[in-house]
Amino acid sequence: LVSRKKKAEDTVVDLKGEKVGDGQQRLIMGPCSVESYEQVYEVAKAMKEQGLTLLRGGAFKPRSSPYDFQGLGKEGLEILKQVADELDMTVISEVMNPQDVEMATKYVDVIQIGARNMQNFDLLKEVGSHNTPVLLKRGLSATIDEFIKAAEYIIANGNENIMLCERGIRTYEKATRNTLDISAVPILKQETHLPVLVDVTHSTGRRDLLEPTAKAALAIGADGVMAEVHPDPAVALSDSAQQMDIPQFQAFLESLRETGLYK
Ligand code: PEP
Ligand code: MN
User: What EC number is given for this enzyme (predicted)?
Assistant: First the structure.
């Protein structure tokens, strides 16, 4: 059902009026983890001033170590919703447990399925049974074919509002945290009718590579880019090496606009 052969036209996912996949490129930004109301508000306000409304933030965090910050859980979703209501923004946040999906739909506009859960089939079926749009990230070691089949699980259960997100794959290369598979973008656009996004933060793991990889993503035809922004990355509770601070975020946007890659 996600195949171009089944449907030739592009799927456009409507996020409270802001459309993803309609030909205009979108930016999804916000902190890695929700840490406090003040932290989310500061980033969201800077985004809103630049005309961005798609706010991401993690409340349920899939951390490699059980001793690392695990996220604020439901309280994090409450903070995101409060900020989004105040600033008229759209919330994207990850859910890891199928049992949390129903609850999360009351707080978020888009449910993110993280890389580590791309093949959590019960979770895919559960988000498939709701109408809430889904941002599905590519698994750390998933082939493009496995990625497409994961999206198929969601659509097969009734939810067509799916955005695919390339976020880097695991290779032997250690210069970056993962290897951004940029050619996945045109392949996914050819093979499926779904919008395709690129997460430059988790694919590179390097702040200095966010801008060039975002340009590459937009130039190659991605429908949007995801990147993380934190008021003070040095003290961030997760992903401190790759989040932009607010002046860096503003410079990032300006640079994308100057090249004409982002309007
Ligand atoms: C995230 O976007 O917050 C995240 C954890 O990314 P990924 O699942 O791609 O590692
Ligand atoms: Mn992160």
Answer: 2.5.1.54
